[in-house]
Specification:
The complex is a heterotrimer of chains A (339), B (287) and C (235).
Chain A: E1 6-9, H1 13-30, H2 32-35, H3 38-63, H4 72-87, H5 93-115, H6 120-139, E2 150-151, H7 154-160, H8 164-191, H9 193-203, H10 205-210, H11 215-241, E3 243-244, H12 246-249, H13 252-266, H14 272-288, H15 293-309, H16 313-322, E4 332-335
Antiparallel strand pairs in A: 1-4, 2-3
Chain B: H1 2-31, H2 38-56, H3 60-81, H4 92-113, E1 129-132, E2 135-138, H5 139-161, H6 163-173, H7 175-180, H8 185-210, H9 218-232, H10 237-257, H11 262-276
Helix pairs in contact in B: 1-5, 1-8, 1-9, 1-10, 2-3, 2-4, 2-8, 2-9, 3-8, 5-6, 5-8, 6-8, 9-10, 9-11, 10-11
Chain C: E1 4-15, E2 18-29, E3 33-38, H1 44-52, E4 62-64, E5 67-68, H2 74-80, E6 82-85, H3 97-104, H4 115-121, H5 123-127, H6 138-150, E7 156-160, H7 168-181, E8 187-191, H8 195-201, E9 204-209, E10 212-218, H9 224-232
Helix pairs in contact in C: 3-6
Classes of the chains: A mainly alpha (339), B mainly alpha (287), C alpha/beta (235).
């Protein structure tokens, strides 16, 4: 076979099938209010929000090498911004969510300038310090209930939709939309010039630097974008919870530990990993949650075993066995069609 | 005088933070590992102390005789059993594995001891104080500070004057060549972790005498230790003590202004130093 | 001829994912000085790594005093009495000169070499013993690296490119000191790019080319044209 009969492509049979299946699944999910019960919808909403958080954390850690254990800073920040902007700014909740994202990006700039001075694992703990600073600072704001927190006033909740069912449907759709938007954003980001730069950095930071890729700038952009989207998801999370307090908003367990487990179990550094990881995480939670602390210990053990024995996670195992890729990111060489 | 008092009490508190930090600093110096579970191991040390004191009726300081070797053994086994497998160029595995350990330890403590705050009883030591120049200094904080100095001086001596310290430094410089000298790096790393957790046991017991503790406070202790390390400068043990003192003083002064500001003031001091001197005040390791 | 102290038995070894040695057979007798020559990339470094345990192979591919040591780790090999003077000297920068020497002795083998013996061999090191090893000149660093290996009192010492990056006059000094270093009973394996130097101190030589032994023989009677053919692989 001569090379003229080959072409380079990103798509494969699997990616096309996956795209079609994905579309069908998406349509079914959008229609959930017509077929799913109230409890199921709540659970699915939570799954989508975790999927979004996990995809964002994966973009940072798996692609940009920025391992953060402090993303709860932006979840909590977004949540508090929702409360502050609706209660004192008189904004409609949806406008407040968008603005919370913008403010998240703004606050992330000085934070990044500071903690980017720390390398590797020290960067990770630095992000945690930032989250603590956020938590302690919001606990000082008495207008937002100080250390004990506050509830979203009924009027603001009503402004979302007059009926309870309407509100529940809307918040379900918002959660679904956030997951879709985040995954799409990550996907298109990785296909962009910046994304290619990221892959280059991940593969070899030194070589990428010598190729003229501005590593610092690329990582900075990823950090800011992630912070902004995480803040919006945080706002959504607390729009569902209707109550916020510093400890809940800036919980390292809820918004970072679980997210890390999801990504590690599913497969770090792939778009598919967080999706698989989220499904496994919720499957485990729904079956083992009665065990309480034991469940968390099991989760920790599973994550450690996966990190040691299969560092590319469940998706990595599947992919290496079947040469699969659902999101067309890597290039493949294919024979041309006859004719 | 009130302010002088705040500074002095804060400095003494810094001794405790230096104890939190010493193990972290040692581990990073020898194997470039940052242990996210470090804070939870401090709390584990406190709980082991609690068990020993309640079961055997020992004074917490006497309990050190049992808890320090136990923690050292845990450290050696942990390093050889799990952590050695994570060491390499990629920073993700050690970070995520120690993060997983942190969650496991925290929940195991929760399962064993419940979430109720506990405290160790050190009898008269807790309230005794001496009067120096008009200031009343608690015997316990003084003792903690003294222990911190002794621990750091011993680590320093071990690191620069003993065969073990030489092996630590050689392995840290170049693992392959150290291996050629007959040093098994897995064993050396195991010994370093054993030593670090021995120090961590001391930190845990001093913490458990001073304040009440529960399984959830590990993260906070990790952060204090980490801040002391970064303020003092990576790889500098005496710098770590100074870092602890700066952190402690910032916290007591913050608390003096407004009780809610205690922790915040410490973090802000850390961030300011990070902004002005990114490598800390007295760095030894250039990364 | 006495029993060989070291034997390589069809050694296949890899440098990363890349096979660097193909079926290498080699023997070193007690007290013998053997030279390994070959161009860059011929597999000399992988050979040294395989013997010293930095690269682990199938156990029976390397036998030492009759024991299969191919799968042992470097620290275990060192304890058996094999020491390596690595290419580029590779001293420990955070250790002083004396500490570098002492860590070589940490294996704990008995023998003629001690701090005093090394200082007698290289008196300049005694003057510099409290300095950081990085503050020494290249030649002095090489002395520390050799002294560090001797401190282990090895039965077999491996020299990997000891003249690399040193001034000719210093190379001359170090080679002049070699007979004194490789004393009674100690065997040595010298990897060297300078063929004349290597042949002058050795009794036999092996030439490696693309991972295979292309020539072996007595150093004294080696014909230059045979060597250059074996070295470069050109007819």
């Amino acid at each position: 076979m001569s090379t003229s009969n080959l072409h380079v492509t990103r798509t494969s049979g699997a990616t096309k099938t996956a795209a079609l299946l994905g579309l069908i699944v998406l349509i079914v999910l959008v229609a959930a209010p017509y077929w799913a019960g109230r409890a199921d919808m709540r659970l699915m909403g939570e799954i989508f929000l975790y999927l979004a958080l996990a995809s964002l954390w994966n973009l940072m850690a798996g692609y940009a090498g920025l391992v953060s254990v402090g993303q709860q800073a932006y979840v909590g920040f977004g949540g508090y911004m929702l409360f502050a902007l609706t209660m004192f700014g008189g904004l409609h909740p949806i406008a407040a969510i968008v603005l919370a994202g913008a403010l998240g990006a703004v606050i992330a700039v000085p934070v990044a300038l500071l903690i980017f001075r720390l390398r590797g694992a020290y960067f990770a703990i630095g992000t945690w310090v930032i989250a603590e600073v956020f938590r302690l600072s919001f606990a000082q704001v008495s207008a937002l209930g100080g250390g004990s927190g506050s509830s979203l006033p009924v009027g603001i909740v009503r402004s979302l939709a007059s009926s309870r069912a309407g509100r529940e449907h809307l918040s379900y759709w918002l959660a679904l939309a956030s997951a879709v938007i985040v995954i799409a954003a990550v996907y298109f980001f990785l296909r962009s010039r910046n994304g290619l730069a990221l892959t280059a950095i991940r593969d070899n930071e030194l070589a990428a630097g010598s190729l003229g890729i501005d590593i610092w700038r690329t990582k900075f952009i990823v950090y800011i974008v992630t912070a902004s989207l995480t803040a919006m998801i945080g706002a959504l999370i607390f729009l569902q919870k209707l109550r916020i307090s510093p400890d809940a908003a800036f919980s390292v367990n809820d918004w970072t530990a679980f997210v890390i487990f999801i990504v590690v179990i599913g497969g770090i550094g792939t778009i598919e990993g967080p999706i698989i990881g989220t499904l496994i995480f919720f499957l485990l939670r729904e079956t083992l949650a009665d065990l309480g602390t034991i469940y968390l210990m099991v989760l920790g053990v599973v994550a450690i075993v996966i990190m040691l024995k299969a560092p590319n996670g469940i998706w990595g195992l599947l992919r290496s066995r079947f040469d699969l890729e659902l999101f067309p990111l890597s290039y493949r060489v294919k024979p041309n069609k006859k004719g | 005088m009130e302010w002088v008092n705040a500074v002095v009490q804060g400095s003494l508190l810094g001794g405790l933070y230096a104890l939190f930090a010493a193990g972290l600093s040692l581990i990073f110096g020898v194997m470039r590992l940052v242990n996210i579970a470090h804070g939870d191991l401090i709390v584990l040390g406190a709980y082991l102390g609690l068990t020993v004191t309640t079961l055997l009726g020992l004074h917490p300081l006497v309990a050190l005789i049992l808890v320090v070797p136990t923690m050292a053994l845990i450290g050696y086994v942990l390093q050889r059993g799990i952590l050695n497998q994570t060491l390499g160029k990629d920073i993700l595995p050690p970070l995520l594995v120690t993060f997983g350990l942190s969650v496991i330890i925290q929940n195991a403590l929760l399962e064993t001891y419940s979430a109720d705050p506990q405290k160790m009883n050190a009898g008269a030591l807790e309230t005794a104080s001496v009067s120096v120049g008009g200031l009343s200094l608690g015997l316990l904080p003084l003792l903690t500070f003294g222990i911190a100095i002794v621990v750091i001086a011993s680590l320093q001596w071990m690191f620069y004057r003993t065969a073990l310290g030489r092996a630590f430094r050689a392995t840290s410089d170049n693992q392959e060549i150290a291996q050629l000298m007959g040093l098994n790096r897995r064993h050396i790393f195991g010994l370093a972790m054993a030593l670090a957790l021995g120090v961590t046991a001391i930190a845990g017991i001093m913490l458990g005498i001073r304040t009440s503790f529960d399984p959830s406070i590990g993260g906070g202790r990790l952060i204090f230790g980490f801040e002391a390390v970064i303020i003092g400068g990576l790889g500098n043990l005496w710098g770590t003590l100074i870092g602890g003192v700066i952190l402690g003083v910032a916290q007591t002064i913050g608390a003096k202004i407004d009780p809610g500001w205690q922790l915040l003031a410490g973090h802000i001091a850390f961030l300011v130093i990070l902004a002005v001197r990114p490598n800390g005040l007295f760095p030894r390791i250039n990364e | 001829m006495p029993d060989p102290i070291l034997k390589l038995n069809s050694l296949n070894a890899f440098y990363g994912d890349f096979q660097a040695l193909y079926g290498v057979n080699l023997e070193v007798s007690q007290g013998e000085v053997l030279a390994i020559i070959g161009a860059n990339g011929a597999g000399k470094t992988t050979l040294m790594r395989s013997i010293s345990g930095l690269t682990q192979n199938r156990a029976d591919m390397v036998t030492y005093r009759g024991d299969a040591i191919g799968a042992l780790r470097a620290d275990q090999v060192a304890a058996q009495g094999i020491a390596l003077v690595p290419e580029g000297r590779q001293l420990f920068p955070s250790l002083s000169v004396e500490e570098n020497l002492m860590i070589g002795g940490q294996v704990g083998r008995k023998g003629p070499w001690s701090l005093d013996a090394v200082y007698r061999l290289f008196p300049i090191l005694k003057e510099r013993r409290n300095q950081q090893s990085t503050s020494l000149s290249g030649g002095q660093q090489q002395m520390v690296a050799i002294g560090r290996a001797l401190m282990a009192n090895p039965d077999l010492i491996l020299f990997d490119e000891i003249s690399l990056g040193l001034a000719p006059i210093i190379i001359k000094d170090i080679y002049a000191a070699l007979p004194g270093i490789i004393g009674e009973g100690m065997s040595a394996l010298i990897v060297e790019q300078d063929i004349t130097k290597a042949l002058s101190v050795s009794s036999r030589f092996y030439c490696l080319q693309e991972g295979r032994v292309s020539l072996e023989g007595a150093s004294a009677t080696a014909a230059r044209e045979d060597i250059s053919r074996a070295y470069f692989g050109v007819e």
